Amino acid sequence: MSKGNLIRRMLASLWRGLNGLRKVLHLVLLLFIFLVFFGAMSGTPPLMPKKAALFIQPSGMLVEQLEGDPFDRALTELVGDTPPQTLVQDVVDALEFARTDDRIAAVHLELSVFASGGLNKLQLVAQAIDAFRESGKPVIASADFFAQQGYYLAAHADELYLHPEGLVLLQGYGSFRNYFKDAIDLLRIDWNVFRVGTHKSFVEPYTRMDMSPEDRESRSRLINQFWSKYQQDVVAARGLPEGAIDDYAQNMVERVAGANGDIAAAARDNGLVDDLLSRNALRERIKEYAGVDSDDEALYSSVSMREYLGQMRLLHKPKKKGKNVAIVVAAGEILDGTQPPGTIGGDSTAALLRNAMSDETVQAVVLRVDSPGGSSFASEVIANEIAALQAAGKPVVASMSSVAASGGYWISAGADKIIASPSTVTGSIGVFGMIPTFQRSLDVVGVATDGVATTPWAGALRLDREMSDASKQMVQMLVENVYDDFISRVAEHRGLDKQTVDSIGQGQVWTGADALDNGLVDQLGDLDDAVAVAAELAGLEEGSYGRKTIRRELSPTEQMIVDFLTLVKSAGIDPSGFVREPAPVAVFANQLHKLLADVRKFNDPRGVYTHCFCEID
């Protein structure tokens, strides 16, 4: 036997062995899948108690749309690693279902891990709490620590309890940011700024070391209106004397000193909470309404919001209608290209609007906007799709959430109707561009740039070369042209003259109530109002149409993977066990990515932005 034949036989035997092993492993995998599937299907699904408290524990921020790719988020939810966010509509829907559900004896609203939410989002949840209370069933609010936004929701409960070692922190509203001009000068960076608008404050951190008088005046007006509305709502909900909230916030040291340094007791003594209860005492209190948990007598009978919503939405899935009002959510900063939910991509949001246009069951569209703006080019791409919808005979209504400013207003301006909340931050009609160059920084470390070109524009916008006067003039003209397009667009669609729009533009920000007075919006209301207006514009009678949310859906393969992992989890196998802890390098990379996230804002192909610094804390 030749040596070659021997080697071939050995390799063939090895291949047959590996191929057999592959088949065995495939069989084992299939058996595992079937065992998990039938185990999950044959197992008794979790039954809701006949009497229970609905446990609602919003975490992180209240948002209009959860951030991130839907598939990635579905996987991270299964392993318990999702960013802390809570959909405002989830809380509203859960309270609405529970209001008429005889199994729900009470609601426990636990707010220890709730961080923040725009005032209009808080008002929507508060309205749902008030509606639930009209059923005669109580809402018990509690927290180890009440942040200001959480306390707003808690104030609408029947009973409000604080941990004896906790506190209620009422800070009022403020608007603060860092300023970098001295650091930029120290690093020898030439930060070339081009803008139109006396109040266009987004660029100020790069050009000065403090807040401009114009921005200070504008923001003072906003935060005073927010604080006034916050106090008004909380005082009414808690039945406190007028001015009690501001008095407590302004004189917190004196109030705590009057309670012998006990900040929790100070909150109780001043009527902010009903009593101080430990967690054990709180559970005993809720047992009086909901009864004892069947598996653990130390706990009260309860069902979580997520589990409850899953069951109720499955049981009460709305029937498909032949005619619908579509809802497209535009939440986050506006960036060029395709972006995941929680960010508005020019291309991806335009695609959603095109889906609404091609859907024969959609008669009208509501664009739900919650955005401080961003890329002017991406904003115009979205605006063009709105115009195409209207040309196809489908009216568009813009519904403003917490923020619809700058680019957020740009994409709203062309709608047939604009509906804002009284506490929406909107306007900020202004434009800017920023181009940093680093030639002086490089010179310090001995790096120079030189070369040849056929025209003055070749290499004119390199970041390692100083901008020429001609290139600066060109960018400034571009910014001014975009601003003129902006105010012309607003004037045309809002029935105003350009001079009027310019006077209320210039980067100034307004509340929704002010915007109504200035003619920038048509009426005040919420998403439900916007849907009703859109239906009316489309000639749809009440009750004859449905709602259809247009969003990026999971592909069949992605859905199959998520369903399989859900079955694995329901069979008692924790999917997080298959996930490795990230290596230190990966942790560092993730943190660096977060630190550099602001750079992602600046991807407009022309370098021109309609962006508002709208953060009100």
What does this 3D model show about the protein?
By secondary structure, the protein is α/β, with parallel strands linked by helices. The protein folds into three domains: 1-43; 52-174 and 224-315, 2-enoyl-CoA Hydratase, Chain A, domain 1 (Alpha-Beta Complex), CATH 3.90.226; 324-436 and 500-550 and 597-611, 2-enoyl-CoA Hydratase, Chain A, domain 1. The strands form five sheets. Strands 11, 14, 16, 17, 18, 20, 21 and 22 form an eight-stranded mixed beta sheet that branches. Strand 6 (139-146), helix 5 (148-154) and strand 7 form a beta-alpha-beta unit. Helix 3 crosses helix 12. The longest helix has 40 residues, at 3-42. The N and C termini lie far apart (85 Å).
List low-confidence stretches: 40-45
Mean pLDDT: 88
Strand segment count: 23
Strand content: 15-25%
Structural class: alpha/beta
Structural descriptors:
eight-stranded mixed β-sheet, 45% helix, 2-enoyl-CoA Hydratase, Chain A, domain 1, alpha/beta
List the helices and strands and how they pair.
Layout: H1 3-42, E1 52-56, E2 60-63, H2 70-78, E3 85-87, H3 88-99, E4 104-110, E5 114-116, H4 119-133, E6 139-146, H5 148-154, E7 159-168, H6 181-186, E8 190-196, H7 213-238, H8 244-250, H9 252-258, H10 263-269, E9 275-276, H11 279-290, E10 302-304, H12 305-315, E11 324-331, E12 334-335, E13 344-345, H13 346-358, E14 362-371, E15 373-375, H14 376-391, E16 396-405, H15 407-413, E17 417-420, E18 425-427, E19 431-437, H16 439-444, H17 469-494, H18 498-504, E20 509-511, H19 512-517, E21 523-524, H20 527-537, E22 546-549, H21 556-570, H22 584-595, E23 608-611
Parallel strand pairs: 1-4, 1-10, 2-3, 2-5, 4-6, 6-7, 7-9, 11-14, 11-22, 12-13, 14-16, 16-17, 16-18, 17-21
Antiparallel strand pairs: 8-19, 15-23, 18-20, 19-23
Helix pairs in contact: 1-21, 2-21, 3-4, 3-12, 9-10, 13-14, 14-15, 17-18
